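Journal club side-thread
Mid-discussion, someone asked how the predicted structure for our own chain would compare to the paper's figures. Pasting it here so we can look after the session.
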Amino acid sequence: MTRTLIHGGLVITASDEVHADVLIEDGRIAALAAPGILTADRTIDATGKYVIPGGVDAHTHMELPFGGTFASDTFETGTRAAAWGGTTTIIDFAVQSVGQALREGLDAWHAKAEGNCAIDYGFHMIVSDVNEDTLKEMDLLVEEGVTSFKQFMAYPGVFYSDDGQILRAMQRSADNGGLIMMHAENGIAIDVLVEQALARGETDPRYHGEVRKALLEAEATHRAIRLAQVAGAPLYVVHVSAMEAVAELARARDEGLPVFGETCPQYLFLSTDNLAEPGFEGAKYVCSTPLRPREHQAKLWQGLRTNDLQVVSTDHCPFCFTGQKDLGRGDFSKIPNGLPGVENRMDLLHQAVVDGHISRRRWIEIACATPARMFGLYPKKGTIAPGADADVVIYDPHAEQVISAETHHMNVDYSAYEGRRVTGRVETVLSRGVPVVTEREYTGHAGHGVFTPRSTCQYLN
């Protein structure tokens, strides 16, 4: 096996910044040393660049069925785009359909992903139908490395679980070590507001944001926290978008509860201004939880700095503007919910470093190390240290780029960040020591990425 040396870069992890050379052997990090000491068969020059761990995106939806259509990225196109953006591990969501076993859903997602991924992947399990059989299956899934389970307080009739079902699943996870992930929005109340808005003739995309009220995100977040407390279980709240929901998380954490929160780039960089774009353009920005008024952004950044929010994932769930988003012309409730973003996360968060919102190490922490720890992948993923997988990104912090659908690699016909100028760009990406992107050229292939079983949440041990 060849030895690869990454020479001359600034190695940045969640805990350290150090000028060091990185030696890779057999797909793993073999050593870090002062520049000039180590030798290898192949050398990658990282002078003037950052050497960072590959990103861990803990929230993606490749090929997700939703509203009569499917997310437009397959595991092949989506993982390739992720690699282009400096992400080397995704955790996607396998879906249990009502009336089916968890195993059927998980097997279906294994079949979609296996042999098609450019980078490594794991699965969470969406639990849509809580019953005695499902609860027993949760134990089995934890044993085979699917250690997190998502439930929905939203989408009645599709993914929705009531409080009793949620409590039962939380009690089970308290016993088996699994982590419950919650989509916290009061879907029952939201459906009433949707019906009333449509009856008033309020059909444009911007009303999607107006009916999915911040208070109903906060209420559901509070309820999920208290149900988890009753069950004695940890809780991870996905895609937090509202300042009122951040306040609920902060309060729970101040009480010492094992409660965690994730936000996404769309909530940090976009707002209801985008949902209100003229014509039907706002449909591009329909996702749930929805975009919020701009003043929420400061509280999300604050939450990331104070660690009341620990992770930034994408909730990548792309639908093309033409042929998919336009299913909702004349009725915002029929617009497929989701945004493309798996390729943009690392760059947008580096821009946040440039803008002074977060530090360089915090960038790596929220995008690489913490998601790896949260979902049982650390230190195999999420850091650069001897023994870790050689998932490494050479990052040019000075290169400027303009984000655009014309140049991105996601299989979707628009960019949520079209025309946005950012500083910083991925140059080379290694996955387990194998070059997937080499000096801005794709050198990876479908099937390199493998399923990666996970241990339980490493913040609870």
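Post-session note: The two ends are 36 Å apart (CA to CA).
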